[in-house]
Automatic annotation (TrEMBL):
Span of the signal peptide: none
Coiled-coil annotated spans: 127-161, 192-226
Pfam families per UniProt: TRIM_CC (PF25600), zf-B_box (PF00643)
Lineage: Eukaryota, Metazoa, Chordata, Craniata, Vertebrata
Gene Ontology MF, one: zinc ion binding
Residue stretches making up the B box-type domain: 79-119
Keyword Cell inner membrane: no
Official protein name in the record: B box-type domain-containing protein
Record InterPro entries: B30.2/SPRY_sf, ConA-like_dom_sf, E3_ubiq-ligase_TRIM/RNF, TRIM8/14/16/25/29/45/65_CC, Znf_B-box
Keywords: Coiled coil, Metal-binding, Zinc, Zinc-finger
């Protein structure tokens, strides 16, 4: 009982020594609830005391036997979210029936006879789901990396075929009379324009795939970091957001395709501009009066690999493909606005 006589009132006078500058709170830090004067940075929060403590004021939780049983978590500025609003006790149970977090007193009242488990057990249940999502995300990264390699091969083929076509057209045009110089320039520009258009499509699609890979890698990082938190409630709240994002249409867009038949890029490894060359040879033989007639055939023969880009999003499912968490900055928010739900929701202060 002598050890337990250290009260909450006495915590604030345990140490009056000045703390190093780095111990004091900065932007985004959680303040110690028991520091007087300048607040020090909290290192832990107690769900039993519903308060946050700096290193100095946390010491009784390691010394007083009865306080050693208190549940400590990483410092949090939203402790009230972990407390039952009806019974003022810790939310340590998850109700499957109502899909909500409750306290033990709730199980004797409104949630009596409901299917409920401890948050620790519920976390264990969700842990396997987390691992499954990590594996799926890694698999999708590999699939998209493969698509990038296929696109790079397509780009090389387009460049090689285009360069060959330009060289052939230049050789043929040099054999034409001076009156055909203008036609030669137009055909060269047509081929170059086709190359530029197809390479532009390929580069945009590669950028999009690389962005998707970066997004998946970011999600994998979040999924890997989440199991290290010892705050069960925070874990379960965050996994709901992450898992819902993984189940969205972000990775299974039905309209994503690189060719008409399938998602695989089909590249004609023997692309040629024989039609262009033959048409130009005919023009050279048939003289100026046939130039206009033969020239209109050139565009049809200049077609290259078609790379289909993703269309603009139009419905909810399309927009979910670009889903991400939005966190607002409490340091720059307007004084008429109030942030909640871990800075993810905003309401106006009337």
């Amino acid at each position: 009982m002598a050890e337990a006589s250290i009260s909450v009132d006495q915590i604030s006078v345990i140490s009056s020594a000045a703390s190093p500058a780095h111990c004091y709170t900065g932007p985004g830090d959680v303040e110690c609830d028991f520091c007087t004067g300048r607040k020090r940075k909290a290192v832990k929060s107690c769900l039993m005391c519903v308060a946050s403590f700096c290193k100095t004021h946390l010491k009784p939780h390691y010394k007083v036997p009865s306080w050693k049983k208190h549940q400590l978590v990483d410092a949090s500025g939203n402790l009230q979210e972990k407390i039952c609003s009806e019974h003022d006790t810790v939310l340590e149970i998850y109700c499957h029936t109502d899909q909500s977090f409750i306290c033990y007193l709730c199980t004797m009242d409104k949630h009596k006879s409901h299917d409920a488990v401890s948050v620790k057990a519920y976390r264990t249940e969700k842990q396997s789901e987390l691992k499954e999502q990590q594996m799926k995300s890694q698999q999708r990264i590999q699939e998209k990396q493969k698509k990038v390699q296929e696109l790079k091969q397509a780009v090389n083929t387009i460049k090689l075929s285009t360069q060959t076509a330009v060289e052939d057209s230049e050789r043929i045009f040099t054999e034409m009379i001076s009156s055909m110089e203008k036609r030669r320039s137009e055909v060269t520009e047509l081929i170059r324009a086709q190359e530029k258009a197809e390479l532009s499509r390929a580069e945009r699609l590669m950028e999009q795939l690389e962005q998707e890979i970066a997004d998946l890698q970011r999600r994998v990082t979040e999924l890997e970091q989440l199991p290290h938190t010892d705050d069960h409630l925070h874990f379960l709240q965050e996994i709901k957001v992450l898992v819902s994002g993984c189940h969205s249409s972000e990775f299974t867009r039905p309209d994503f395709h690189l060719s008409v038949a399938s998602c695989n890029i089909t590249v004609n490894q023997h692309l040629s501009f024989d039609g262009v060359r033959n048409s130009l040879s005919a023009l050279n033989k048939r003289l100026e009066e046939f130039c206009q007639e033969e020239f209109i055939k050139i565009p049809a023969h200049a077609a290259a690999v078609q790379i289909i880009l993703l269309p603009e999003p139009k419905n909810r499912q399309d927009f979910l493909y670009y889903f991400c968490d939005l966190t607002l900055d409490p340091n720059t928010v307007h004084y008429d606005l109030i942030l909640s739900e871990k800075n993810r929701a905003v309401t106006r202060n009337f």
